[in-house]
Here is the input.
Amino acid sequence: MFDVCRAGFSVEGNEISYHELMASSLVLNHVHRAGQFTIAPFVLNGSNHISRADQFQTFHIPDIHPSAELSKAGQSKMPGHERMSVATGDFCVLYSQRAHADSFDAVATIFFIDTAPNLIRYIEAVRNCLKPGGIWVNLGPLLWHHVARNEDHKEEGESERDRQTGVSDAGIGDPGSVELTHEEVIALVGHLGFTIEQHEHGMFETGYVNNPKSMLQSTYRPSCWTARKV
Ligand SMILES: C[S@@+](CC[C@H](N)C(=O)[O-])C[C@H]1O[C@@H](n2cnc3c(N)ncnc32)[C@H](O)[C@@H]1O
Here is the structure.
């Protein structure tokens, strides 16, 4: 979200997790300088270190000062803080709403679509909130997050609560897990009202929040595609 804003666009981010929201709010709204805080992200994991110093290595965050970066001239006539906002809540519930219909020129999903129990819900939400002709840019792997989850895990009393509040859309609380391949995702997106403009996979390798000094390295070769709302 910040990078899109820094490139000069107006952007709305979306996040459901309070942990993520609190951390990003701290960095975006409350730091006074780059490198203000020191963190030791690998300290609680004792495995696969070459040296103890690797376990205790520290980093200074943030690497840049967000508001100073956004106030640099030349990106947009509108100030950065007026071009960036965050909507909290479940992506598929929020952006399926009529209030969000045909709102955005573009949607970017980064390491995100595999958080869906049922990808169709995410595709429908993106389709709802994009303007006709709008573009969807996606990058990420397919590590389906809801594998092995089933109806038994539904919280006790949840159905009763739904009945009482009249809220029946569980969003990512929907039961089940549909684990599609990259080819199936492309076919599904094309089937549900988009034209696939380009798609590729395995073009580059990337980690995700990993320790480059560790003896254990996990690497993704993510897929990347763009689709246009018909
Ligand atoms: C794998 S992370 C990727 C985050 C970020 N795009 C990045 O590349 O670092 C997926 C994020 O999506 C959030 N998330 C998962 N399901 C969501 C939903 N239904 N609505 C909104 N956010 C969701 C998670 O809390 C998590 O922060």
About this structure: Confidence is low (pLDDT under 50) at residues 154-166. The first helix runs from residue 2 to 6. The pocket of S-adenosylmethionine is lined by residues 14-17, 20, 90-92, 110-112, 115, 171-172 (CB under 6 Å).
